[in-house]
Amino acid sequence: MLIAGCNSGGGDKPSKTLKELGKDEKASIKVVYWDKSYFFQQYGNLFSAKFPNIDVQVVSMQGFYSDGKDPDEEFKKLVEEEKPDVLMFQSPEMFEKWANDGKLYQLDDVIRQDKFDIENILPSVVEQIKAKGNGNIYGLTPSFYGQALFYNKDLFEKHGVPLPKNKMTWNEVLDLAKRFPKDGQGDNRIYGFAENASYAFMDDKKQIAFQMMNSIGGTSGLSFVDPDKGAVTIQSDGWKEALLATVEALKSGAVFAGNDEKFDPNKPMSMEDHMKKDLFANGRLAMTVGGSYMISSLQRTKETLKDVTPVNWDIVTVPVDPKNPEVSNSVSLSGLFAVNANSSNPRAAWELVKYINSDEMARLLTKSEDGAMLSRTAYAKEREGRSMEPFYMLKMSENSLFKNYNKIPYEFFYQPFNELAGNEIQSVIEGKKSVDDALKTIQEKGQEIYIKAKQEQDAKNAKEGKDQKPAEPAKN
What we know:
Blueprint (H helix, E strand, L loop, with lengths): L26 E7 L2 H15 L3 E7 L10 H12 L3 E4 L2 H9 L7 H6 L9 H10 L10 E3 L1 E6 H6 L11 H8 L27 H15 L5 E2 L4 E2 L4 H16 L18 H7 L9 E5 L1 H12 L8 E5 L9 E2 L3 E2 L2 E4 L6 H11 L2 H7 L7 E2 L7 E2 L2 E2 L1 H5 L1 E2 L13 H20 L5 H29 L13
Helix pairs in contact: 8-9, 8-15, 9-15, 15-16
């Protein structure tokens, strides 16, 4: 049993070491995970083979994100009802809150006790975990989420454009994109850059423009909402620069800005149809930003579309902020496993967390096709013959763009705000509005949308019996 008082949020008191399980001692633990079958496929079967005396039951999180449910509240309710021993946090912000509320078992002492190797975990992953726990370790993750700038080597060589380099700024990336021809027709039309290669079958030019501006601003650490103040913060010099860069790039014709092909929801697209619409996979795009999953996607396209020449691709780091070129907001923690502070069997729970994050598991996960970037650097060398170093080169930003995101009434805010911003940006592109006027409109009308969304969220919370403070207009 866990001794009461040995674990304190924020790490004021050290956690206790854990008595090892006897050779024939049996234990039973519960783990919260997305899906029962996927857990056993990924981790559970291997763990059970190694620890046959520990019975593992899975509490599924299926349905947490449906019907406008608050996933944080659903998670809290599930833990109260099921009393699981091992918790999996997809959100680092939620992990941080639970750690500092004293709900998670501090692992520092037992890591030392077991001489568990964390030295070979990517330092920025460990640093980020410690930052979430006021300097202490309350969880571990076998993988993290990252992005890179993918580029088509053959297109660059064909058109005599210098290859991309690591740690380029957005201006440098877009300048390279503008060196590609813009005069092709139909399938012969190529583009220098698209933020997302799958935009090729999107006809919403307004949203493409907004997402691009958001990415450029996000690289500089900008957010269009301050969740603590409940204020829209888009009328600033930083956002003005991001909007100017977006408008110039999209007007140049070098960046994919959407097409006139109307998507018919009544005509569902097959996976092969999606592949045929992917500009990068079909050799029509010089550069795009993508996650590590894109590597598996390109391999599947290669195997499926036999009549398409496979892309000769490589990667460099995502664009960086010139003022802070060593960090990236596109690198973040996910899938954090922690031991419940109230676990009735913390040693067995720790054995599962330890195994999921072990060197042995990392070696096995290198063969996985889910595209995750492994936290253990020994198995991060290359994939498909390409160096994966660009995914590991940049440090994680401590000022996460998504900090306190749960304060934002996203269910009622994001869609109308995105639509407003997209319309205003498109007006600038079409020459109907100045950049300053567009930002002023987004700021003022966006604030109205935020206040209304907060009121709607509070009303919904009150109806569902949640304890929330009433909405307050932002103070300008």
